[in-house]
Structure formats: C-alpha cells, structure tokens
Design goal:
Largest interface: A-B, 28 and 29 residues
Order of helices and strands of chain A: HHHHHHHHHHH
Oligomer: heterodimer
Structural class of chain A: mainly alpha
CATH topology of chain B: Cytochrome-c3 Hydrogenase, chain B
CATH superfamily of chain B: Cytochrome-c3 Hydrogenase, chain B
Strand order of the largest sheet of chain B: 1-2-3
CATH class of chain B: Mainly Alpha
Largest sheet of chain B: 3 strands, antiparallel
Number of helices of chain B: 16
Order of helices and strands of chain B: HEEEHHHHHEEHHHHHHEEEHHHH
Shape of chain B: globular
Helix content of chain A: 55-70%
Strand content of chain B: 5-15%
C-alpha cells in the first residue's frame, strides 16, 4: 500500500525531529542540572540570573557557544578535526531512535535493538579518539590514547552483563525485554533472582560501565581537567566544543535509558499501575541524577586504577554472574 | 611504577606543563619529558612571578617592606610577616609586650588553619573532586572574617608591626574565635569521613609521590613535607620563638612519605593549631600591644640576624644584614616552597602524569613564594 509507506516515512521523520529536539533539550537542561545539583550539595545557588531560577541559562550558554569562532590551529588535520564533533553526536542520537519510550512510543523497533545500540555507542569512542588525535596537541593525544584503553576495558564487563541478561530474556528486542518485566518491581530484571542471584550486582556493574563509557567522572579520563586541561576537547572552540558537550549528556541519557529498559522495567510502574511514558522518564532522570551525584562526590580515578577496576574486579564479577546465570537458566 | 632503562631510550616527547595549567595553581612551568604517560624527566622552570622582593627590601626602609612580606606566600601571609617583624626586632633589640606575642600566635595559627584548608580544597581539585573545595572555603571564610575584623584585610595582612601589633583584639574576636574552634572541630569528622576514608582518594594518595627522609634532608625540605616523611622537625618546637614554648601541642609526624602522609600531617596540624589558639585565648595577659618608644625610622646597629618561623609550608626564614642605615644592606628570604619543590624533579621520575600532579599538589606550593 503506497499510503502505508508514506505514513511510515512521515512518522519516522517526525520521530527523528522529535528525538533531535529531545536530545538537545536534555543536553541543555542536564547541563543546567549539572550546575544546580552540585550547587545544592555545595551550599550555593547555581545559576540564578538568566530567566526565573536560572532556567534560561542553557539558552545563554548555547548563544555564547554559537557566537564563538571555530578555530582550527596549525598542524591539525582539518577534515578529521571538523568531522569528529559531528561523528560523536550522531551515533548518540541514533541510539535514541532504538529506545522504546513507552508501550506505544518509540521510533523504530528492530529485533536486534540491543546489539544496534552498542554498535552505535562504539562509534562514539572512535570519534572522540579522532578528535583528540586530529587536534595536534599533546594533551589531546594522551587523552585519545586513554579513551581507547578505557573503552576497551569497560566494554567487556558491560557486554558480559548484557550477554547474561540476553540469556535470561531470550531476545535482543528492547520492547520485548520491557514487556517481560510487567506487573511490578519484583518482576524487574534488577530483582530477577530466579535468573541469577547476582542481578543487583549486574546492575551495579552496568552503572559503573555506563559512567566509564560516557566518560563521566570519576572515570572522565578523556577530559581530566586538572591533568589534561580539557583532554581531547582542548583545541575545540565554539559549537565544536558544544557538540562534544551535547554528546556527553546524550550519552548519559542513552545509558540511563538502556539501564531503565534493561533492569528497571522501562515504562512499567513499580506497582503495576498506570504504565506509561512518565514512569520511563522518572526512571531515566533518577539515573541521570545519580550520574551527576557521583561526579560531584568522588575524586577522579587514576588511569591504572580505572583499568585495574575493570580487569581485576568488574570482569571477574561479570564472568561469575554470566556463569551463575548460565547454570540457572540451564537448570530452571 | 618504575620504568626500565630501555624505555628511557624509547621515543619521548616534551610536554610543557604550564606556565598556565589548571594544576599548577599559578605561573609555574614544568618541562616534562614524557614516555607515553610516564615521566622521564621533569625540569622546573620558575621565575614567571619574580617581583624582586629581596631587592625591594634593600632599597626601602624597614617599615616600608612590611607589606611585601605578606605578598610572597599570600595564603599564609601572617606567618611571613611574623618572620619579618621578629627578625627586625631581634636586629634592633626591640622587646615585644607579651600580649602582642599572644595575639601574634593566635592570628598566625588561625592563618595556618586557613592556609591548610585552602590547600586541602585545592589538592582535591587536583584529584578531580571539586565539592570539598567549597566546604573548606566555607570554613576558611570564618577565619577570614575574624582576621578581617582586627587586621582590616582578608588576604595580604599587614598587621604585625615592629614592637607589637597595630590593633588590639576585642571581645567579639575572642568570642568569634572560640565559636570557630567549636565549629571547626565538629567539621573534622565530616572531612575525615568524606575525604580521608574515600576509597578513590586513598588509592590516589597512598604510596604515591614517595619522598624519603634522606631526600628531604638533601634538598632542605621542611614543614609538612618533612614531617610527612617521618622527621619530627617543627621550628615552633625545635627552635622555639615567640610564646610557643608556653603551649601544649604535638607535632604530627607520619613516616610513609607519600601524599597521604602529607595530607594527614596537615589535617592533624589544623587540630593542633586550634589547640594552640584555644590555650592562647585562655591565657592571654592584659597589657599593651605595642612596645614603647619604637622609633618611626628604624636604624638598627651594624650586624646581621637570621630568624625563621614555622610557616604553613615549612621553615620560612629571613636573613637581614644591617649597615646602620635606615634600609637593610641585604635581605635574604628562605622560602620553604622553593626547597620543597626542588625535590620534585628527583622524586617524580618514572611516575605517571596524574600521579605527578597529585604529588605536585601535595607539596602545597605557592608559586609567588618560590619566585619572590
């Protein structure tokens, strides 16, 4: 039917515009939350001047960034330098396309959704490395080397946890995974003790790896402002820097969304009442809040501390979880 | 953590750390020869903030140099000025009334606490934790308010004069200081549970930036750096000056020599300084705060003297040579940061960049004091 085809195209386009808007809105207001939240922790007020309660602060930040010149300093690889910020944002937004926001919302469901999300997430690392390397700056080069080591180290426990989860759910389809968790918080994967008694630990591993994947403190080796100035982003100005900034927050949103979908029952209510988009958003922003909370509580780890944590603690634990899950799935 | 000989000959690159870098807290430049993230050599380049303080001391009268002393180590300014006035008083044979000495000790120890609080916040920023900075600044603010009420300034004090202090303390100051001591003591457990016990903080500090006592001796390192390496040397105890011998306080010493030891020394010193202030407030005698008949233009007899005090960063000394005129013939400053920083190059070889910056932070450098 030609009409179905047309309708599907229009629907996808609308979703895409909506998701870009969602990404931009989140990047803007998570950056405000990133300033307001520590302000509460630190007995100050945060931005108050721009708009009521400082609510227009992200707008002011955006205008400032747009007004700045994009400088490319001598010796930089101009093409790669300019591609990198774009290449870091697009995969993050692509991940959002695959996320089921509610029973009826979601741009595209594909049966391998979970795999697709992590394929896109991997491009992000490449783009950050590209930006650092193309900058022709020693601090940026160090950061580029760090980002690779860090992401290799943290993708392994992350994917091990997800493999174990897929063994339980028997599907890569994100919508199907959420549907299995209906009926109350005791059905959520994070408390699915029937599948593996280590499920809460798996969620914790997921959360730590998510912080590391999104390069968030205490694992912000790529930026590490007291060591590497601004790491891979040192040479970027204006919206070039702004795009990296947006990508960081979109990654937090994506990571938190996947966390909510995989472990916290997605759009389902904890008590089996009124499922819907609002529950998904509540879970999403609680996780985002926790991500910011962690950043303003802990010092930065050292690069080898970070790798040790991954290779000596998280990977063995994730493997143990995988084996326990495999045995339980086989027995039950 | 050490690198073998082979890798030293591998391809290295030069990394200019500074003069403007978030972790150098001032215009300090360190030319790092790096092998990947390992440091092969670190050549400090200092002098960006050189203001010829010593020369300025020689071409102006003694009194006109008073504000200069507080502009070297501006974080612990009163301790520097204490050294300067005490050196001149010894040279000119001025006796200071006891009340003035008590006031000097009270204000200097408060200044030491504020300096250590500032250091703690800045050190944690170096380690990537921003929040503690605002907590320590909150406490430090109380000290600055107290000192402002009697000295008139908040950072670069010029409060001590030859023969005493320029302004007597009042009841408000005494009450305020007492309540501050209470508050600060109640805050210490919070700092220990939030920072000292933090697992990431401990991992970043324990065993990092090791300085053997022997290295401290060779480079003349003093203060918390030396005491963090297990040597019990405190000018207030070993070469007592002012009214310090009257007070009961202990000198914290930790033998490990790492960043954690230096951190613990400073944290304990905050508590000890509070004890000194508390005792001084109880025992402060009545009387004048200024010696009588101190000439407006000092002309000490020919001779020289060296005086050193325990500043927040170590032994701060001044050697003043007088040829009988109204300005010193020579004024030499011994700055603790200069000596403490000198050992950086030797101790930092073979460490990782991030550890080197933790080490640099734990030395508690005030760059204008190195450059003078």
């Amino acid at each position: 039917m030609p009409h179905d085809w047309l309708w599907e195209t229009v629907r996808l386009l609308l979703y895409l515009v909506g998701l870009i808007g969602f990404a931009a809105f989140n990047a803007a207001y998570l950056s405000l939350l990133e300033r307001k939240e520590p302000a509460w922790f630190q007995l100050r007020r945060g931005p108050t001047e721009a708009g009521p309660l400082g609510l227009l602060q992200p707008v002011a930040d955006g205008i400032k960034l747009l007004g700045k010149q994009l400088l490319v300093q001598g010796g930089a690889d101009v093409l790669l330098f300019k591609i990198a910020p774009v290449a870091v944002v697009i995969p993050s937004i692509m991940c959002l396309v695959l996320i089921p926001f509610s029973e009826t919302m979601g741009a595209r469901d594909i049966s391998l959704g979970l795999l697709a999300v992590y394929s896109f997430a991997a491009i992000n690392v490449l783009a950050t490395m590209l930006g650092g390397w193309a900058s022709h700056n020693k601090y940026s080069s160090i950061a580029a080397a760090r980002v690779v080591a860090q992401n290799i180290a943290y993708e392994i426990p992350l994917l091990l946890v997800i493999i174990a989860l897929v063994m339980v759910t028997h599907t890569f389809d994100l919508r199907e995974i959420v549907a299995q968790q209906a009926g109350g918080f005791w059905n959520w994967n994070v408390l699915r003790f029937g599948a593996s008694p280590l499920m809460p630990l798996a969620f914790l591993i997921y959360f730590i790896c998510m912080l590391a994947e999104a390069n968030r403190a205490p694992f912000d080796m790529v930026e590490a402002e007291s060591e590497l100035i601004a790491g891979a982003f040192t040479e970027y100005s204006g919206m070039g820097f702004g795009l990296f900034f947006i990508a960081e927050y979109v990654n937090v949103v994506v990571g938190s969304s996947i966390g909510a979908v995989l472990f916290l029952g997605g759009w389902h209510c904890p008590f089996g009442l009124l499922p819907g988009l609002h529950w998904f958003l509540i879970k999403l922003y609680l996780l985002c809040f926790a991500v910011i909370w962690v950043r303003w509580t802990f010092p930065r780890t050292q690069i080898y501390g970070l790798l040790n944590l991954s290779w000596k603690v998280l990977i063995p634990l994730a493997l143990a979880h995988l084996i326990v899950t495999a045995v339980t799935v086989k027995l039950v | 953590m050490s690198i073998d000989d082979q890798s030293i000959h591998a391809e290295t690159f030069i990394l200019n750390l500074g003069p403007q870098h978030p972790a150098t807290h001032g215009v300090l430049r360190i030319k790092l020869t790096m092998d990947g993230e390992y440091i092969v050599d670190a050549e400090p380049v200092i002098g960006y903030g050189h203001r010829m303080h010593e020369k300025m001391g020689e071409n102006r009268s003694y009194a006109k140099f008073l504000p200069n002393a507080s502009r070297m180590d501006y974080v612990g300014a009163l301790l520097n000025t204490h050294c300067h006035v005490a050196a001149v008083e010894r040279l000119a044979g001025i006796t200071v009334p006891e009340r003035a000495e008590f006031i000097r000790v009270i204000t200097a120890e408060l200044n030491r606490v504020s300096s250590h609080l500032l250091w703690m916040g800045a050190f944690l920023v170096d380690l990537g934790a921003f929040t503690p900075l605002l907590y320590t600044f909150d406490d430090r603010e109380d000290i600055l308010d107290l000192l402002e009420s009697i000295t008139g300034s908040r950072l670069t004090y010029c409060y001590y004069r030859f023969g005493g202090v320029c302004n007597d303390i009042d009841d408000d100051f005494i009450a305020g200081t007492r309540s501050f001591i209470e508050r600060m003591r109640s805050r210490m457990p919070m700092y220990h549970s939030l920072v000292t016990e933090n697992i990431i903080f401990r991992k970043r500090c324990e065993g990092i930036g090791g300085v053997p006592a022997e290295t401290c001796r060779r480079y003349g390192a003093t203060g918390p750096v030396l005491r963090g390496s297990g040597v019990c040397y405190d000018v207030r105890r070993n070469e007592p000056y002012s009214v310090y011998p009257l007070f009961d306080f202990s000198v914290p010493v930790y033998p490990e020599g790492d960043c954690m030891a230096r951190y613990r020394v400073r944290m304990d010193e905050i508590v000890e300084s509070l004890r000194i202030v508390e005792q001084a407030l109880e025992r402060i005698p009545a009387g004048p705060v200024m010696a009588e008949k101190v000439p407006l233009i000092l002309k000490p007899a020919r001779g020289e003297c060296y005086f050193n005090v325990e500043a927040a960063r170590g032994s701060f000394g001044m050697r003043i040579v007088s040829d009988g005129l109204d300005a010193p013939y020579r004024l030499k400053v011994r700055s603790p940061c200069f000596s403490n920083f000198s050992l950086f190059r030797e101790c930092v070889r073979g460490t990782l960049l991030a550890d080197a910056l933790a080490f640099l932070g734990s030395l508690d450098l005030v760059i204008p004091e190195i450059d003078r």
